[in-house]
Amino acid sequence: MLTLADAGLRVEVLDPGAAAELPRQGQRFCRGGYVWQIHDEKLGPLLSGPEYPAPEPIPFNGQGLPESFRHRTREGRPLTWRDGEGLAPGIGRLGLDARGEPVLVAPCAWKITQLPCQLVFQTRDAGAGLDYELARQLELRDRVLHSRTQLTNTGPDPLRLQWFAHPFWPLRDGQAQVQLPTGARLTENPGFAVDAHGKLSFRRPFRTAEDQQFALLELPPARALTLTLDHPQLPRVEFSTSFAPSECPVWANARTISVEPYLTLDLAPGATRHWELRHAFPGS
Predict the structure, then answer these.
(1) pTM for the predicted model, two decimal places
(2) Is the distance from CB of 95 to CB of 64 less than 8 angstroms?
């Protein structure tokens, strides 16, 4: 496990080159810069997951602060696929098994650089007629973790895909209160409600890990996302993006809640896109 430490926090990051940690990484979340847990030196672990505190959750569920490049949409429409070959940025080249399900054929290789308060992950990969370079940087300063991404299309064809963040925050007494931007709304659902001031709360408790709810947020257009969340150990957690999400689901079960900003990426040959997430964990 790779680590960053500052101001009473210790960030644990999966090492994409460590054989012992590969079973945790799977085919869903970007392997470079995968934050597995953040510990407060006095309060203990601050993040959760769909199966938390299980020490080895199935890779699809994961835990912590993973980020993902979607090679297929949520509905299953292929994005970075051609003639049965797929490319999952930050993971590797994919194929199809006998049931038509994606399998990892060749993982991408990462260069990892450790700097004071920073971890930098760099990779380049190609497949399905596509080629890209990806850099991920994690920086921890004053109890704020910055997650920065740079994606460059180095191939001859357009690179079209989706990226999303999937932060897993813990619940407080089985509930969550999330302050969203004023004007935020929510598609009708039996699990969550958003009031006139943008505060999201549970309509009912979730009883088990399998008891869950997914819904789409409607955020004010053309604005970066900023939210605060009640935390069982800290005064609050703050989360923000450097971009206006193209869409933004919210998901929860009995162990965790996640607000998932999406970014639709359409990079012409030679084009580069940068974006950033900010996770703040103010001390008590």
Answers:
(1) 0.96
(2) no
Q: Are 242 and 220 in contact (CB under 8 A)?
A: no
Residues with Cβ < 8 Å from 54, sequence gap 6 or more?
Answer: none
* Burial of residue 84 (number of CB atoms within 10 Å: 0-12, 13-18, 19+): exposed
**HEC readout, 161-196:** EEEEECCCECCECCECEEECCCCCEECCCCCEEECC
Instruction: Please compute, for residue 59, the number of CA atoms within 13 A of its CA located in the half-sphere on the CB side.
Output: 15
- The type of residue at 13 is V
Contacts of 100 (CB under 8 A, 6+ apart): none
Structural domain spans, the chain: 2-280
- Burial grade of 53 (CB within 10 A; 0-12, 13-18, 19 or more): exposed
Structure tokens at 58: 């199935």
Do 70 and 78 form a contact (C-beta atoms < 8 A)? no
Could you count the other beta carbons within 10 Å of the beta carbon of residue 9? Answer: 20
What CATH architecture is 2-280?
Answer: Distorted Sandwich (2.70)
CA distance 279 to 283: 13
C-alpha distance across the termini of the chain, in Å: 27
Per-residue confidence of the chain (284 residues) as pLDDT tens digits?
Answer: 999 999 999 999 999 999 999 999 999 999 999 999 999 999 999 999 999 999 999 999 999 999 999 999 999 899 999 999 999 999 999 999 989 889 999 999 999 999 989 999 999 999 999 999 999 999 999 999 999 999 999 999 999 999 999 999 999 999 999 999 999 999 899 999 999 999 999 999 999 999 999 999 999 999 999 999 999 999 999 999 999 999 999 999 999 999 999 999 999 999 999 999 999 999 87
